[in-house]
Structures are given as structure tokens and as C-alpha cells.
Amino acid sequence: MDSDLAALSESLGQACLQRGLTVATAESCTGGWAAQVITHTAGSSAWFERGFVTYANAAKTDMLGVRMDTIETFGAVSLETAGEMAVGALMYSKAMISLAITGIAGPAGGSPDKPVGTVCFSWCVRGETAPPCERRVFSGDREAIRRQAVIHALTGLIERARNMP
Fold first, then answer.
1. Rounded to an integer, what distance in angstroms lies between the CA atom of residue 82 and that of residue 114?
2. Is 119 in contact with 149 (CB distance < 8 Å)?
3. Structural domains present in the chain
4. What is the pLDDT confidence band of residue 126, given thresholds at 50, 70 and 90?
5. By Cβ atoms counted within 10 A, which residue in 55, 56, 107, 133 is the most buried?
6. What is the per-residue pLDDT for 25?
7. pTM for the complete prediction?
8. What are the Cα distances from residue 38, in Å, to 19, 49, 101, 107, 108?
9. Least confidently predicted of 32-36, 126-130, 152-156
């Protein structure tokens, strides 16, 4: 674990412990990497509740309750799907705050509308039904895109955790 990722884990842990929060993750293109970073910090069981790796569309619907209609209408890589993933991570866990990541890490699979490097994110606080979502397009190879996605997702989660009452 490099020092940048370890620092994110520690910062998230501090923010969660200060506010009594627990976290759930819902990941697709990152394949559990965000959860791995989170659990790098000793004692993370005090604030990390669970992680969902939902790479296939069926996993998104089965494990997180993402509507197949959402995936068919907007795509697995969409703000709408990311939002439903984040809500589902809280619905199917006891966590207080969640993150969701779904994207196209490449090297294939992109399109003109959604090029390789497109990643959609969402962060949800228990009780929210329309969580904030964001789309980013990262550059680099598969590993670089996935790493940037993990950093962005965790940074967003830290910001939200720090701003919780």
C-alpha cells in the first residue's frame, strides 16, 4: 500500500471515528480496491461495515437492488446506476455512509459517449434517496484509471464524513 492510499484510509478512519460513522462500499470497476484501502488501517473494523463488489450487472441488481430498467436505460456506467448502488449499499448494510464506483477501466469497452476512463461515483448518507453523483474521465492505463477512481471516491467520502453533524 503506497503512502497516499494509506493516508486516505487513516483520514477516513479519523473522520468516521469522530462522528461515530460506519462505511459501506459498492464497487464495480475497482473490484474491491476501495475496500482494500479502507481496511489497510488497523482497527478499521470499528468504522468499515462491509463492501460489495458488483462487477456484473446481475450482481448490481441482486446485491444492491439496482433496477435492471436503470441499467438498460442509462447503462451500468451512469450517474443513475452509481446513485442506486450507493443507496443499495446502505439498504443492504448497517452502515451510515456509502460510496459507489462504476466505470470503464479499459483497455476496451469504451464508446464515444463513454470513453475508456469514464467513471461514475456516488456517496450516500443513510436516509438520502437522491445522493450526489459525479462523472469523471480519467486517463492512463487500466491500473491508473482504477487507482484514480479509488482516490477520488475515498476523497469524496472523507469530505462528506467530515461535514456530517
1. 15
2. yes
3. 3-162 (3.90.950.20)
4. very high
5. 133
6. 98
7. 0.97
8. 17, 11, 15, 26, 28
9. 126-130
